[in-house]
Write a structure and sequence with these properties.
Layout lengths: L16 E3 L6 H5 L3 E6 L10 H13 L8 E5 L3 H13 L2 E7 L4 H9 L3 E5 L4 H14 L4 E2 L7 H17 L6 E5 L4 H13 L4 E7 L27 E5 L1 H15 L5 H14 L6 E6 L18
Parallel strand pairs: 2-10, 3-4, 3-6, 4-5, 7-8, 7-10, 8-9
Antiparallel strand pairs: 1-2
C-alpha cells in the first residue's frame, strides 16, 4: 500500500499560537493577561493569505469557473500575490499579479520565483488603481479575477479554519481577538466563528492612522471598502501609526525571537495596548507574515560588509 503523502496545499493552516514572554509589561501581567501570537508565517508561502488564496482557487474550481491551464489575475500589495503564486503553481494555473511599484522587492521576486507574471502599477494610484486595472483586464478577456476584496471564500476560510484553530488552541479561553485589516477577510471570518462559540469575545480590527503606509493594512476610501467587510463583526476599530508598527516588528524579533512583518507589529502593538486596559484576558493577535519580506526596507537593521 502506498503511504499518504501530503501536497503543498495540505500544509496550509494549523499554525502555532506563541505566548509573548518579554514584551508584555509588568502591569499587564499583574492584571492577569496573556498575549498570544498566531504565527501565520509558518504557512508554506509564509503568510495568513495562504488560507484565502487556496480557498478562492478551490472555490472557483468547485463552481466550474476555472480549470487548470486558465490564467488568474489579482491585484495585491504582496502577501496574497505570493500565496496565489504558490497555489497557482501547485495546481497548474497561469497568474498575472498587479501590485503598486513601492511594494518591497522581496515580495515581487518571490512571486516571480513561483512563476507569476508581475505588473507594477504607479505608486500614486496605490491599491485602488491596481484593483481597477485588474478588473479591466478581466473585461478584456485576459483572465479570471478571483477578487480577494469581494470573494466570500476569503472570510469563509477563516471562519472554517482560523477561528476553530484559535478556539481549540486556547481551549475556548480566548477573550479578545486582534487582527490588522486589509481585505478584512481574516477579522470578519474569524469573528463569525468566535462569536458563535462565545458572543462575549471582543474583536479588535486594526487600521493605519491617517497618512500611515503600513504594508498589509489599509484604510480604504469609501468607494473601495471591500465588499466582504461586515462592520458588525468588529467590536472595536483601533488605529496604529507607522512608527509603532515598525518598532514593534523590530522588538518582536529582538526580544521574542519572532521575525514578523510590519502589519504584525501593528497588530501586536494594539494587543499590548489592550493588555494595559483589561484584566484576566487571553488576547490573540494575528502575526500575518515573516519579516524577511521587508529586509530591503528601512524597518530592520542594516549590516555593512
Amino acid at each position: 500500500m502506498n503511504p499518504d503523502y501530503l501536497g503543498v496545499e495540505d500544509l496550509v493552516g494549523h499554525t502555532p499560537l506563541v505566548r509573548l514572554q518579554r514584551i508584555l509589561s509588568a502591569e499587564a501581567r499583574q492584571r492577569g493577561n496573556v498575549v498570544l501570537a498566531k504565527v501565520e508565517g509558518d504557512n508554506p508561502a509564509g503568510s495568513v493569505k495562504d488560507r484565502p488564496a487556496l480557498a478562492m482557487i478551490q472555490g472557483a474550481e468547485e463552481r466550474g469557473e476555472i480549470r487548470p491551464g486558465d490564467t488568474l489575475i489579482e491585484a495585491t500589495s504582496g502577501n496574497t500575490g505570493i500565496a496565489l503564486a504558490m497555489a497557482a503553481a501547485a495546481k497548474g494555473y497561469g497568474l498575472i499579479l498587479l501590485m503598486p511599484e513601492d511594494a518591497s522587492i522581496e515580495r515581487a521576486q518571490t512571486m516571480a520565483a513561483y512563476g507569476a507574471e508581475i505588473m507594477l502599477t504607479p505608486k500614486a494610484g496605490s491599491m485602488e488603481l491596481a484593483r481597477d486595472m485588474a478588473a479591466q483586464m478581466q473585461r478584456d478577456g485576459l483572465g479570471k479575477v478571483l477578487d480577494q476584496f469581494a470573494n466570500p471564500d476569503n472570510p469563509r476560510t477563516h471562519e472554517q479554519t482560523t477561528g476553530p484553530e484559535v478556539w481549540e488552541q486556547t481551549r475556548g479561553q480566548v477573550t479578545h481577538f486582534v487582527s490588522s485589516m486589509g481585505t478584512t477577510g481574516t477579522v470578519v471570518g474569524t469573528s463569525r466563528y468566535l462569536k458563535r462559540m462565545n458572543p462575549k469575545v471582543t474583536i479588535v480590527g486594526v487600521q493605519p492612522a491617517e497618512g500611515a503606509r503600513i504594508p498589509g493594512i489599509r484604510r480604504w476610501k469609501n468607494e473601495y471598502v471591500p465588499r466582504i467587510f461586515d462592520p458588525s463583526a468588529v467590536d472595536l476599530l483601533w488605529d496604529v501609526n507607522q512608527a509603532e508598527s515598525e518598532t514593534m516588528a523590530r522588538r518582536m524579533a529582538a526580544e521574542e525571537g519572532l521575525f514578523v512583518g510590519v502589519s504584525s507589529g501593528g497588530a501586536c502593538a494594539a494587543a499590548l495596548r489592550l493588555a494595559e486596559e483589561v484584566r484576566q484576558a487571553t488576547i490573540v493577535f494575528i502575526a500575518c507574515d515573516r519579516g524577511d519580506r521587508y529586509l530591503s526596507s528601512q524597518v530592520f537593521p542594516r549590516v555593512s560588509k
